[in-house]
Amino acid sequence: MFKGVNNGFQLIRASIQIFKKHPILIAPIFIVWVVYAVLLIYYKWHFPWENYNTTGQLIFAYLFFLAISFLLTFSSSVLLELIQQKEIGQEFNFNKALSDTFDKNLAHIIALSIVWSIIWFLLVLLKVILRGSSDNDDDKNAENVAKTLAGVETFSWITLSIDLILKGIRMVVFLILPAVAWENYGIRKSINRGFQVLSERRSEFATGFTLSLGTEFILFLPPSIMFYLSAKEIVAFNDLAWYFCIIYIGFAWSFIIYLEQMFAAELYLWQMQYENDCNQARKEGELQPKFSDVVRPSIIDEVPDILLLKK
Known about the structure:
Elements: H1 2-21, H2 27-45, H3 54-87, H4 94-131, H5 142-150, H6 157-181, H7 187-200, H8 202-219, H9 221-231, H10 239-283, H11 305-309
Helix pairs in contact: 1-8, 1-10, 2-3, 2-10, 3-4, 3-6, 4-6, 5-10, 6-7, 6-10, 8-10
């Protein structure tokens, strides 16, 4: 158990170190956040909900989750293709990563995003039903936009539990995608493969989940302090301050998604290395190594790990 915790910590730390060397990797995710922010603001303050019955409203609400699920899985696929380029001895080529995502992965991404979006939508719908009316007033101003994008709501154990489940599901999706991008599996086999890695690496996954959650808490602490000071009328922030808060929220959200994606990619690649070492040990009649004894492959370094594993 302790080794699993240590392994998970190593994966999170490696993801942060990669970000320091290649901060551009967060760019596709930040673009997704911009689209998410625009759609969320439009849906909350500008969409003509009164023109549709309950069924129509639910359909349009679901389309929002479908769009964001697709964009997140698409951006993750592009990131994984970029990683694969480096891990087979090539240089970063964004156009090729984009082309490979369209040519090889698009159908699987669509299928996975549909499954994910349905689960996401139903859980959020359950949270809305349990939560009741929204905490934010209906006025559209910079502060309320920031609160909406930050997901500010009254605390309850039920809604917190649903949020944690949603985060866990998202990380599982990111654990499934390497099977699509790196091993060219079909959608059903990719899902099974992702859950197999999850089942065998439960301790590492749980540690990564917890550390990512802690990082999320720290990153969103500054906006939370602003919201508290404003609500208590201790400080009156002007619109410029709230605009900076909105931009900060965008980068914080993007970094958390990046961290989850890179953690899943590192864990998956480590599992591939472990299975390769086990196969090699069986061929040589030796005892299979423990997972913690296998040297963790480092993503985006000078060693083409995926190329070596496929030989």
